[in-house]
């Protein structure tokens, strides 16, 4: 069956994904399959204007913890993990 609204959303997402991949692949464009994870991570962790939230936060109900925040402790991570001052 054809659902115009759903197909329109899929087309819009595919266009966005293609644009993200264009930014992260090398000039040879042969490593897109290795870089798709990075492109999806960027999409899922970017705040969307209509919802004022990231897709990740809407699905999991928590904010994204960036890999950098794992290496450099932040107050938000300490609170989220329930750590004390000690």
Automatic annotation (TrEMBL):
InterPro entries: RNaseH-like_sf, RNaseH_sf. One of its GO terms (molecular function) is nucleic acid binding. It comes from the Eukaryota. This is Integrase catalytic domain-containing protein. It comes from Sesamum angolense.
């Amino acid at each position: 069956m054809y659902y115009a609204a759903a197909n329109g959303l899929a087309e819009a997402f595919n266009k966005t994904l293609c644009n993200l991949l264009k930014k992260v692949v090398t000039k040879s464009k042969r490593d897109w399959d290795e870089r798709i994870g990075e492109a999806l991570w960027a999409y899922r962790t970017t705040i969307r204007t209509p919802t004022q939230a990231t897709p990740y936060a809407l699905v999991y109900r928590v904010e994204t913890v960036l890999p950098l925040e794992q290496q450099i402790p932040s107050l938000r991570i300490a609170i989220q993990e329930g750590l004390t001052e000690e």
